[in-house]
Write a structure and sequence with these properties.
Layout: H1 2-22, E1 26-29, E2 40-43, E3 47-51, E4 57-64, H2 80-92, H3 96-104, E5 118-124, E6 132-138, E7 143-150, E8 153-162, E9 167-174, E10 180-187, E11 191-199, E12 203-211, E13 215-216, E14 226-227, E15 237-247, E16 250-254, E17 257-263, E18 265-274, H4 290-302, H5 306-321, E19 325-327, H6 332-335, H7 339-344, H8 352-369, E20 395-396, H9 400-404, H10 407-410, H11 418-439, E21 450-451, H12 472-475, H13 480-495, H14 498-519, E22 521-522, E23 529-530, E24 541-543, E25 546-548, H15 555-575, H16 579-590, E26 595-597, H17 638-651, H18 657-669, H19 673-683, E27 700-701, E28 707-708, H20 715-728, E29 729-730, E30 736-738, E31 749-756, E32 760-767, E33 770-778, E34 782-788, E35 792-794, E36 800-801, E37 823-825, E38 840-846, E39 850-856, H21 859-865
Helix pairs in contact: 2-3, 8-20, 11-13, 11-14, 13-14, 13-15, 14-15, 15-16, 18-19, 18-20
Length: 866
C-alpha cells in the first residue's frame, strides 16, 4: 500500500509540474455564458452548480442530486402474469403487432423527474461595459474563476463546491477598496418562499424553502400537469441557506434580498439539503428534517476562511484527479484561444491538447457528480435547468446509465463507481417485487429501461397502457439488472477486492441470473433458450417491409445473459459457493440462442436475418459483446469481430453524441485507431446552444464541452473518455495491450496512472507511434501478460514468450478469457478484413507493490527471442 501511494504521489508531482508549465487543463472563455450549455459545471457529487460568469447579472444555477419529483411508486402490474403468456404465444406465432398491443397493457407509469433546485443571482451595481473579461473552469483544482475590468476596477469571483465541507463557496474581490456593491437573491423554478436576515456584523443570511411537485405528467419538454401538495404533503421538501460575510462596507435587507454596499471583499457560503430519506420512504410524509442538515453545513463552512476551505477542497479533489496525467504535446498558440474557438477550429488545426482537455473533463465530471455516498449520475450527471428536463433527466438504463460508469475503472476512479452499486441494492429490493408481481418469478430481481430516485423497476410507459407514448420498443426490456451486474464483475477484475465480490457483487449477480433463468423460454422451433418478448433497445425491426416493435431473442439480450452467466459462474468458483447453482447456469448457458452472422457479413441484430444495411439507428446494441462486453475479441472470435465491423460500417460514423462515443470504443476494440479518431473528431463538432436544433439531429459538443446528443446528455462525455483510454490500453481479453488503437495524429505522447484489470496501474510513453517506455505498478502481484505490436522486454525481471493470441488461460484469475462463443454463419456471407497487426506477447511474474519497466527490444534481441 505504501509503494502504491508513493507511485501515485510521483504521478501527481509530475502532473502538477506539467499543468503549471502548460496551463492546459482550463476551459476558458472571453465572454459570459449566454446559454446554459455555455455555463461551467461545479459539483461535489451532491450539490451541482452551473456558473454563467455574468458581469452585471451573475447566475449560479443550482441542483441537488436527491431533488426529484414524486415519491415511491412501484408502478407494477398485477395483470402481467395473465398477459405475458399471451404475448409470448403471439411472438412465437409471428404476430408481432398483436404482441405489441398486448405488451402495452403490461406497462406502468413513466419515471419521476430530476429537478432544478434554485438560482442564486448576484446583481452588481456597476456598468456592463468591460475592457477585459475572462472566465474559466480549472480542472486541476475544480475551481471556477471570473475576472473582468469595469471603469478601471478589476473584479474577481472564485467559486468551488467542497466535498469535505458540503458547501459552495464564492469569494469576490476587487483591486480597489470599497468597490464591491451588489444585490443577492435566491429563487427557484419550483414552489418556494424565501426570507432574508441582515445583522450589524456585516453578515447576512437568505433561506429559501422549497417544494418539489408530487406529480409531473408529461415526459416531453413542456411543463404540463405539474402538481404540488401542501408543505407537509407528498413531494420533496428542500432548503437553500446562504450566508454573506462582508469585509468593509455594509449589508442590508431589502425585501427578500440582501444588498451589499462598498465592500472590500465578500465571501458567500451556500448549503442546501432535501427531505430525501431513502428510496422507499415518502419525502413529504416520512422525510428527514433537512433544515438541520442545511443549517449545520452552513455553520461549519462559515466558521472557516475561504483559503482554509479551498485548501481542503483542492486536496480532497486532487487525491482522485491527479492519479492520471495525459500529454499529447503542447502548442502554446492554441492555448491562447478560448475553448469554444478551439472547438470550432478542431478539424482545421492540430489540437491534441483539446483531446487531453476533453479526456480530463470527463474524469472531472465523474468526480464532481459521483462519489461514495452520493446518488449515481443521471442522464445529465447532476446538472439540470428544467422542471421538465429531456427524458426526465432520469436513469435511462438501456445504455446511458451504464455508459456513465465506463471510465470509472480504467481511468483510475474506482471509488466513483460505488454509487451505482449502492443503487443496485435498492433496485434489487424493488426489482424482486416487480419480478414477482409482473411475471410470477419468485427468485432474483429485474429492472427495465429506466429508473429514478425511487429505484423504479417496472416497465415504464406513459400515463396508461393506451398512451401513444407508451412504446414497447423501449419499455419491453427487462435487461438492466443483468447489464448492471457486469459492472460489479468489472470492478472486481480491476481491483481484485474479494470482500466486495463476496458481500456486494455476487449476491446481486446471482439475483440477476436467477431472474434470467426464469425469464428465458424454449423456442419450440429451434430448441434454444430465448427471451420472449424481446427488443433491441429503441430500434424497430423490418420484416417484409413493415416495421415492428417486438421480436424475440435479440442479440443484445442473449449477449448480456451469456456474459452474466459466465461471470456469475466464475464468481461462484472463486468464492467456492454453490456448485449446484453453477451447474444450473452452465446448462442454461449451453442452450442459449447463439450469435448469427447474416447475409451481409454483419452481426445480426435480430432473431432472424432481418437487418437492413441502410438502418442508421443510433442504438447499435447488438454489438454489446464487442464492448462493453468481452465475448467478441480479435483473438478468440475474429469472425464475430469482423461481423461486428460490418455492422458498424452499415450504421455509419456520425450519429447522436453518446452514440458516437460508443462507436469510439468499438473501433478501439477492433484496433482501428484511425477510425476511432475519425469519430472522436466528429464528436467535436461545435453545437451552438443559442440556435434551435432538431432533437437527436446529429451530435457534437457544446461550448462548455458538454456532450450534445442533442440535447445535453453526459454519457457522451463519459463514453468518449472511456474510449480514449481503450485506444491506449486494453486488458479485456486475457492480457494488457499497450497502444492497441493509437491513431497517427497522436504520434508522440504519454499517459500515466490509467488502470488495467489485475489492479495494474500503467504508464505509457510512446514515440513515432511505438512504445518507448512503459511502467507497470502491480498492486496485487500475480502474472502479467503483456501484448504489444513490436518486441519489448522487462528491465527488472526475466519474461517468457506468452501464448500468441492468448489461447492459453492467463494464470492470473483477474484476466478472464471468455472463450469462443457459439455462432452460426450464413454460408454466403463475406466477412470484412480486420487488418490485424502482428502481436508480441510476454508473461512475467510480478510482486505486490513493485513497479516494472517495459522497453523495446533491439532488433537482434527480438530476432533471438521471437
Amino acid at each position: 500500500m505504501i509503494m502504491q501511494k508513493l507511485f501515485l504521489l510521483s504521478i501527481s508531482i509530475v502532473f502538477l509540474t506539467a499543468t503549471n508549465a502548460q496551463n492546459n487543463l482550463k476551459l476558458w472563455y472571453n465572454k459570459p455564458a449566454a446559454a446554459w450549455e455555455e455555463a461551467l459545471p461545479l459539483g461535489n457529487a451532491k450539490t451541482g452548480a452551473m456558473v454563467f460568469g455574468g458581469v452585471v447579472d451573475e447566475r449560479y444555477q443550482l441542483n441537488d442530486n436527491t431533488l426529484w419529483s414524486g415519491y415511491p411508486d412501484g408502478g407494477n402490474n398485477p395483470d402481467g402474469p395473465k398477459i405475458l403468456p399471451q404475448v409470448r404465444e403471439q411472438i412465437f406465432a409471428g404476430n408481432w403487432d398483436s404482441a405489441t398491443t398486448l405488451w402495452k397493457k403490461m406497462q406502468g407509469p413513466y419515471s419521476a423527474r430530476y429537478l432544478p433546485l434554485a438560482d442564486l443571482r448576484l446583481r452588481n451595481y456597476h456598468d456592463s461595459v468591460t475592457t477585459f473579461y475572462y472566465r474559466d473552469l480549472d480542472l486541476s483544482n475544480a475551481t471556477s474563476t471570473v475576472k473582468y475590468t469595469v471603469n478601471g476596477v478589476t473584479y474577481q469571483r472564485e467559486t468551488f463546491i467542497s466535498h469535505p465541507d458540503k458547501s459552495m463557496v464564492i469569494r469576490i474581490t476587487a483591486d480597489k477598496k470599497v468597490s464591491i456593491s451588489f444585490k443577492a437573491a435566491i429563487t427557484s423554478k419550483l414552489k418556494y418562499e424565501v426570507n432574508s436576515i441582515a445583522s450589524p456584523k456585516k453578515e447576512g443570511t437568505i433561506i429559501l424553502k422549497g417544494k418539489a411537485p408530487k406529480f409531473v405528467a408529461n415526459r416531453d419538454y413542456e411543463p404540463k400537469q405539474v402538481e404540488y401538495d401542501d408543505w407537509n404533503g407528498e413531494g420533496m421538501n428542500f432548503q437553500v441557506h446562504m450566508k454573506i460575510i462582508s469585509q468593509g462596507g455594509s449589508i442590508e435587507k431589502t425585501g427578500s434580498h440582501l444588498v451589499i454596499q462598498k465592500a472590500d471583499a465578500v465571501t458567500i457560503y451556500v448549503s442546501e439539503a432535501t427531505s430525501f430519506n431513502g428510496f422507499d420512504k415518502s419525502p413529504g410524509l416520512q422525510g428527514k428534517d433537512h433544515s438541520i442538515e442545511a443549517k449545520a453545513n452552513l455553520k461549519n463552512a462559515a466558521s472557516k476562511t475561504f483559503e482554509q476551505l479551498k485548501n481542503v477542497h483542492v486536496k480532497d479533489y486532487q487525491s482522485l484527479f491527479n492519479r492520471v496525467q495525459f500529454d499529447l504535446g503542447s502548442n502554446n498558440d492554441l492555448l491562447k484561444q478560448p475553448t469554444d474557438q478551439r472547438l470550432k477550429n478542431f478539424n482545421s488545426q492540430h489540437d491534441n491538447q483539446l483531446v487531453v482537455l476533453y479526456y480530463q473533463f470527463g474524469r472531472y465530471l465523474m468526480i464532481a457528480s459521483s462519489r461514495p455516498g452520493s446518488r449515481p449520475t443521471n442522464l445529465q450527471g447532476i446538472w439540470n435547468d428544467h422542471v421538465q428536463p429531456p427524458w426526465g433527466s432520469n436513469y435511462t438504463t438501456n445504455i446511458n446509465t451504464e455508459m456513465n460508469y465506463w471510465p470509472a475503472e480504467n481511468t483510475n476512479l474506482s471509488e466513483c463507481h460505488q454509487p451505482l452499486f449502492d443503487f443496485m441494492k435498492e433496485l434489487a429490493v424493488n426489482g424482486a417485487i416487480t419480478a414477482k408481481t409482473n411475471y410470477t418469478i419468485n427468485e432474483g430481481w429485474v429492472t427495465h429501461h429506466n429508473s429514478d430516485l425511487w429505484a423504479k423497476t417496472s416497465p415504464p410507459g406513459g400515463q396508461g397502457w393506451d398512451d401513444p407514448r407508451a412504446m414497447p420498443r423501449w419499455s419491453c426490456w427487462p435487461m438492466a439488472g443483468a447489464w448492471f451486474s457486469t459492472h460489479l464483475w468489472e470492478h472486481y477484475l480491476f481491483t481484485g477486492d474479494k470482500k466486495f465480490l463476496k458481500e456486494t457483487a455476487y449476491p446481486l449477480m446471482k439475483g440477476a441470473s436467477q431472474f434470467m433463468l426464469h425469464w428465458l423460454v424454449v423456442d419450440p422451433k429451434s430448441g434454444y433458450l430465448v427471451t420472449n418478448p424481446s427488443t433491441s433497445p429503441e430500434n424497430t425491426v423490418k420484416i417484409n417491409g413493415k416495421e415492428y416493435q417486438l421480436s424475440m431473442a435479440s442479440t443484445m439480450d442473449m449477449s448480456i445473459i451469456r456474459e452474466l452467466f459466465t461471470e456469475t459462474i466464475k464468481a461462484s468458483q472463486i468464492l467456492h459457493l454453490s456448485a449446484e447453482f453453477e451447474n444450473e447456469l452452465k446448462k442454461a448457458k449451453e442452450k442459449l440462442y447463439p450469435f448469427h452472422i447474416g447475409q451481409y457479413g454483419q452481426l445480426q441484430e435480430w432473431f432472424r436475418d432481418w437487418d437492413d444495411p441502410k438502418d442508421s439507428h443510433r442504438h447499435i446494441s447488438h454489438l454489446f459483446g464487442l464492448y462493453p462486453g468481452n465475448e467478441i475479441t480479435l483473438n478468440q472470435s475474429p469472425e464475430l469481430a469482423a461481423a461486428a465491423k460490418q455492422s458498424l460500417i452499415h450504421r455509419g460514423d456520425v450519429s447522436t453524441g453518446w452514440s458516437m462515443a460508443w462507436k469510439i470504443n468499438w473501433w478501439a476494440r477492433l484496433h482501428d485507431g484511425e477510425h476511432a479518431y475519425k469519430i472522436l473528431s466528429s464528436a467535436f463538432t461545435y453545437i451552438d446552444p443559442t440556435q434551435k436544433r432538431e432533437t437527436m439531429g446529429g451530435g457534437g459538443t457544446y461550448p462548455n464541452m458538454f456532450d450534445a446528443h442533442p440535447p445535453f446528455q453526459i454519457d457522451g462525455n463519459f463514453g468518449a473518455t472511456a474510449g480514449i483510454t481503450e485506444m491506449l490500453l486494453q486488458s479485456h481479453d486475457g492480457a494488457i495491450t499497450l497502444l492497441p488503437a493509437l491513431p497517427s495524429a497522436w504520434k508522440d505522447g504519454n499517459i500515466k496512472g490509467i488502470k488495467a484489470r489485475g489492479n495494474f496501474i500503467v504508464n505509457i510513453e510512446w514515440k513515432n507511434g511505438q512504445v518507448f517506455q512503459s511502467k507497470i505498478y502491480s498492486a496485487l502481484g500475480g502474472n502479467c501478460r503483456l501484448r504489444t505490436f513490436h518486441p519489448v522486454k522487462v528491465v527488472e525481471v526475466k519474461s517468457i514468450p506468452g501464448a500468441i493470441g492468448t489461447k492459453d488461460e492467463n494464470p492470473n484469475p483477474l484476466f478472464t478469457v471468455y472463450g469462443k462463443p457459439p455462432y452460426e454463419k450464413n454460408p454466403n456471407a463475406k466477412l470484412q478484413d480486420l487488418n490485424l497487426k502482428k502481436e508480441y506477447v510476454i508473461d512475467f511474474k510480478t510482486e505486490k507493490g513493485k513497479t516494472y519497466t517495459i522497453v523495446p527490444l533491439q532488433n537482434e534481441e527480438a530476432r533471438i527471442t521471437h
